Amino acid sequence: MQYISAIVPPLVMAIGFGFLVRAIIRTQGGDQKGKEDAAADALAAAAAPRVAE
Fold this sequence. Notes:
By secondary structure, the protein is mainly α.
């Protein structure tokens, strides 16, 4: 029975990671893509002067 207790945590983590990847892929693009791109561009523009200093 020790093999069951040894395999359960990695199996649960692998399943959770699979769901995380699936959620990330499903949220790419779509209706909010323009808003997300604008927010990322604004953050990059705000960080650019600090990097140059």
